[in-house]
Design goal:
mainly alpha
């Protein structure tokens, strides 16, 4: 596997901004103060990378090494506060959280795949790291605000879609040797469109044990 990072670097920043916006909006929905809103943004934006790098890959996460991460998260937090003050609707905030999650999840998943490939992991390990990186920030965000993580609840095929997007990216870039850049954006678009379709059609998973 190639040692260089193949996914577009811009995708990493898109993922950071999307998850920071999602975390900040969740903090605003919980009526936190400005510090609390920033903390939820920070955990959502950096949490997936910290699990991926600190736990799975045992390297320093980019939030500690990339000088652009914290300013991006801070700027996004300020933007989220300004935006939420104009929305004046909890329903609109929930819809916006859903939309930005649908961008941040596959973006971070693809970036995490490239980190795993750079670490020369076997393909099943690459897939696992991609999935964990994609959803890790959302899991930590929900735990921080004392909610059951969305991925653990009956819902709209979140985990399945993440795995499909990761598998699609890996098949096209590793199996068919297609350019990573266009495929990365395509995987994000695939996840985003299918995720919105499941919301539109209200397709849901069910609890293993019924009432």
């Amino acid at each position: 596997m190639p040692a260089e990072f193949q996914a577009p670097p811009l995708l990493d920043y898109v993922a950071v901004v999307a998850w920071a916006l999602s975390g900040a909006l969740v903090g605003l929905r919980k009526r936190f103060d400005v510090v609390g809103v920033f903390m939820t943004a920070l955990v959502a934006a950096a949490g997936g990378g910290m699990i991926r790098d600190g736990v799975l890959l045992q390297t320093l996460p980019p939030v500690l090494t990339n000088p652009f991460y914290l300013p991006l998260i801070l700027g996004t937090t300020i933007f989220a506060i300004t935006l939420a003050q104009r929305l004046h609707s909890a329903r609109k905030i929930e819809t916006l959280i859903e939309l930005v999650d649908a961008v941040g999840t596959p973006a971070f998943a693809v970036v995490s795949i490239e980190f795993a490939r750079r670490a020369n992991l076997p393909l099943p390990g690459v897939l696992l790291v991609g999935c964990v990186g994609g959803v890790g920030g959302g899991v930590l965000r929900d735990i921080l605000v004392r909610e059951i993580p969305e991925i653990m609840q009956p819902g709209r095929y979140l985990a399945i879609l993440v795995a499909l997007a990761c598998a699609l990216y890996m098949i096209l870039t590793i199996g068919f040797a297609l350019p990573a850049g266009p495929v990365a954006w395509g995987a994000v678009a695939f996840y985003f469109c299918v995720r919105l379709l499941t919301v539109r059609m209200d397709w849901r998973t069910r609890a293993v044990l019924g009432e």
